């Protein structure tokens, strides 16, 4: 059985959503980020990324991490691709070409979307959109997303999903990267095809199950 380490308020949301889509039983170890704790090394501290038991799984002290038999993976997008290939049926690739396309979508999310989207999320959360300086920075980060989102709009025009015209792990991986920028309304409204796709992804029962658990965790 797969063991997945990481709280829902982390990139562990990606493989957790996927596992719910598959309906695959797994063991969940809710490891919290050490930086969120006042004293992660205290004897009574919750299981965290500096706990010796977790460092034995991932010495890099980051979540998520996954153990599946003898296989240990410590990158969320690699974890998702492994689970989809090994257990996901039509959520995973059905041909070498689809495997390449799924990998490309994951890399696009990681290299072109995630970083500026995260900056937007942090800025909005800090209320920087209410200051001229913050608004200017948010516009800069949003501008960095215009090209990848225009490409995403094109890929989705006439299609509900990204690969094989069916919902796959590619949709999960890319949607979770784009989610960080979802609160920036002008950006999303400028890319209505991508916006509608993201809403379709998040309407799925498996996402809703993951999201409810995330909201139940301490912020």
* Average pLDDT for all residues: 97
Spatial strand order of the main sheet: 2-1-3-4
Give the count of structural domains. Answer: 2
Strand coverage percent: 5-15%
User: How large is the radius of gyration?
Assistant: 18 Å
The total strand number stands at: 4
Helix content: 40-55%
Poorly predicted sequence stretches spanning 5 or more consecutive residues: none
Shape: globular
> Regarding CATH, which class of the largest domain?
Mainly Alpha
Specify the biggest β-sheet.
Answer: 4 strands, mixed
Architecture (CATH level 2) name of the largest domain: Up-down Bundle
Order of helices and strands: EHEHEEHHHHHHH
Which structural class do the helices and strands define?
alpha+beta
Number of helices: 9
Look up the CATH topology of the largest domain.
Answer: Glutathione S-transferase Yfyf (Class Pi), Chain A, domain 2
Brief characterization of the structure:
By secondary structure, the protein is of the alpha+beta class.
Explain what this protein looks like in three dimensions:
This protein is of the alpha+beta class and 219 residues long. The chain has two domains: 2-91, Glutaredoxin (3-Layer(aba) Sandwich), CATH 3.40.30.10; 96-204, Glutathione S-transferase Yfyf (Class Pi), Chain A, domain 2 (Up-down Bundle). The protein is built from nine helices and four strands; from the N terminus they run βαβαββααααααα. The protein has helices at residues 13-22, 52-55, 76-87, 96-125, 132-156, 169-178, 185-190, 192-202, 205-216; strands at residues 2-5, 26-29, 65-68, 71-73. Strands 2-1-3-4 form a four-stranded mixed beta sheet, with helices on one face. Strand 3 (65-68) and strand 4 form a beta hairpin. Helix 5 crosses helix 8 and helix 6 crosses helix 8 (192-202).
């Amino acid at each position: 059985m797969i063991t997945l380490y990481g709280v829902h308020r982390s990139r562990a949301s990606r493989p957790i959503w996927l596992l719910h889509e598959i309906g695959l039983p797994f063991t969940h170890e809710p490891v919290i980020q050490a930086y969120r704790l006042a004293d992660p090394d205290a004897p009574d501290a919750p299981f965290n990324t500096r706990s010796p038991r977790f460092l034995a799984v991932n010495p890099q002290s980051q979540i998520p991490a996954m153990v599946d038999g003898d296989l240990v993976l410590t990158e969320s997008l690699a974890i998702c691709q492994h689970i989809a290939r090994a257990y996901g049926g039509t959520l995973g690739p059905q041909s070498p070409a689809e495997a390449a396309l799924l990998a490309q979508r994951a890399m696009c999310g990681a290299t072109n979307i995630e970083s500026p989207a995260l900056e937007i999320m942090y800025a909005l959360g800090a209320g920087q959109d209410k200051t001229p300086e913050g608004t200017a920075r948010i516009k800069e980060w949003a501008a960095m997303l215009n090209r990848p989102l225009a490409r995403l709009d094109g890929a989705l025009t006439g299609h509900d999903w990204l690969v094989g015209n069916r919902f796959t792990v590619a949709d999960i991986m890319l949607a979770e990267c784009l989610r960080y920028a979802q609160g920036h309304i002008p950006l999303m409204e400028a890319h209505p095809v991508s916006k509608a796709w993201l809403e379709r992804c998040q309407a799925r029962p498996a996402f809703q199950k993951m999201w409810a658990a995330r909201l139940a965790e301490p912020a």
